[in-house]
From TrEMBL:
Residues 3-77 form the 2Fe-2S ferredoxin-type domain. PROSITE patterns: 2FE2S_FER_1, 2FE2S_FER_2. One of its GO terms (molecular function) is oxidoreductase activity. CDD domains: fer2. This is (2Fe-2S)-binding protein. It comes from Candidatus Andeanibacterium colombiense. The keyword Kinase does not apply. Keywords: 2Fe-2S, Iron, Iron-sulfur, Metal-binding, Oxidoreductase. InterPro entries: 2Fe-2S-bd, 2Fe-2S-bd_dom_sf, 2Fe-2S_ferredoxin-like_sf, 2Fe-2S_ferredoxin-type, 2Fe2S_fd_BS, Beta-grasp_dom_sf, Diverse_Oxidoreductases. The keyword rRNA-binding does not apply.
Amino acid sequence: MARSVTINGKPREVDVPDDMPLLWVLRNELHMVGTKFGCGKALCGACTVHIDGVAMRSCVTPVGSLEGKQVTTIEGLADEPVGKALQDAWLEHDVMQCGYCQAGQLMNASALLKRNPEPDERQVEAAMSGNICRCACYGRIKQAITVASAVAKKEQADV
Ligand code: FES
Ligand code: FES
């Protein structure tokens, strides 16, 4: 079925069944391959995107559920100050090893800082615990989130 899905602020036309997971729409229909396929079962977090600002797993989100909603992917993350700050902190702290999980990690971290601009270590660990990194970059991910939280705090103060 032909439909329009709003991705990173732009309407995109796709002709796919209602039950096709958003992940397939992104990667196979729109060739936006920044969002990764890990498990396909909502277990690893590699496919995390934002839907109306909330971190969701695109591998189990049917495209038919997205009518009127805003999808943000890793390709759109740097358009937001907190997303840009996270990407900068990721580079500064040399977080990535193989990099495969990192788009999902960044999307989840950005959703965390939007709802809690100054998380403590325990809150970061709890929020990020569902995003698996087979290279075990967890320590550097935590450090980078702490650095970027200063920008998130300032953003909130300026609103
Ligand atoms: S690919 Fe979606 S959670 Fe693993
Ligand atoms: S950096 Fe390799 S899986 Fe996370």
